[in-house]
Amino acid sequence: MNTPYVKLENKNQVGYIEFFHPAHNSLPGDVLAKLAKTITEAGENNDIKVIVLKSGGDRTFCAGASFNELININDAATGKVFFSGFANVINAMRKCPKFIIGRIQGKTVGGGVGLAASTDYCMATKFAAIKLSELNIGIGPFVVGPAIERKMGLSAMSQIAIDANSFYPPEFAKQKGLYTQVYETTEELDEAVKTTAEHLCTYNPEAMIEMKKVFWKGTDDWDALLAERAETSGRLVLSEFTKEKLKTYR
Q1: Which distant-in-sequence residues (6+ apart) come within 8 Å of 107 by Cβ?
Q2: Dist. CA 143–CA 43, nearest whole Å
Q3: Degrees (nearest 5) of the Cα angle 152, 205, 189?
Q4: Domain 5-200 annotated CATH 3.90.226.10
Q5: What's the average model confidence in pLDDT over 5-22?
Q6: How far apart are CA 146 and CA 179, in angstroms?
Q7: What is the mean pLDDT of the chain?
Q8: Distance between CA atoms of residues 95 and 163, nearest Å
Q9: DSSP codes, the chain
Q10: What pLDDT is attached to residue 248?
Q11: From 233's CA, which of 87, 89, 169, 239 has a CA 20 to 30 Å away?
Q12: What integer pLDDT is reported at residue 250 of this predicted model?
């Protein structure tokens, strides 16, 4: 399994959206664009009542942005487009009229934490540690920050953003509101996700739509806010500090 993909499968009115990249599920621009489009399409599909967001493979949910693309950014406009990839996915999740359940089977870094925070109900395994590593390379979790702050609070978000070298355990993420439950195995996680999603399908769709509006109240400015944050990251990635730092990853 070496070819990146995004796929949607409908099982019992649950739309399972799965993404994959061989580099620890890091996400280049084309995969992010397809992911945003697939989330929007699932939200518009009348045969789907609830969505599950998951990734392929066993070990890493998402390693964040693609370093191969990051290293090759040479101008601010390209930088803004690159960082807008995660912004577009977060906004697609925010605007989706259906509940999105996150299935986090392993470690998640940077933008991956932002994806987890943008789900409406997030479930994980004991292997699903989180890390915001952006400050290590001279930028910051600007684009995903609003989603993480909304779910975990400013204090927790700032803590993991500043401590950019550390993985924080799943229990920390649960205590701070990112994860609802933490399971011992992936098999237990998958069974719980399936049970939860299929039970939600028995709820009134109109009530779920109205509840989702309540959950995301106060985020109407995120199209502009996340675009502004993407521009900031696109400028910082061109700094001498970041360019030198990125050379160490080649």
Answers
A1: 59, 60, 61, 63, 127, 128, 129, 130, 131, 167
A2: 23
A3: 50
A4: yes
A5: 98
A6: 17
A7: 96
A8: 31
A9: --S-EEEEEEETTEEEEEEE-TTTT-B-HHHHHHHHHHHHHHHH-TT-SEEEEEESSSSEEE--B-HHHHHT--SHHHHHHHHHHHHHHHHHHHH-SS-EEEEE-SEEETHHHHHHHHSSEEEEETT--EE--GGGGT---TTTHHHHHHHH-HHHHHHHHHSTT-PBPHHHHHHTTS-SEEESSHHHHHHHHHHHHHHHTTS-HHHHHHHHHHHTTT-TTHHHHHHHHHHHHHHHTTSHHHHHHHHTT-
A10: 82
A11: 169
A12: 65
Of 143, 161, 160, the closest CA to residue 233 belongs to 143
Look at residue 222 in the predicted model and tell me its pLDDT.
Answer: 98
Q: In 3D, which of 146, 145, 149, 137 has the Cα closest to residue 239? A: 137
Token pair 């978000």 is found at 157
Least confident piece of the model among 69-73, 189-193, 205-209: 69-73
The pTM of the full predicted model, rounded to 2 decimals, is 0.96
The pLDDT of residue 1 is above 70: no
- Cβ-based neighbours of 167, under 8 Å, separated by 6 or more: 107, 129, 130, 131
Q: Is the dihedral of CA 53, 51, 87, 181 positive or negative?
A: negative
Neighbouring residues of 200: CB distance < 8 A, sequence distance ≥ 6: 49, 50, 99, 101, 208
**pLDDT at residue 155 tops 80:** yes
Q: Where are the domains of the chain?
A: 5-200
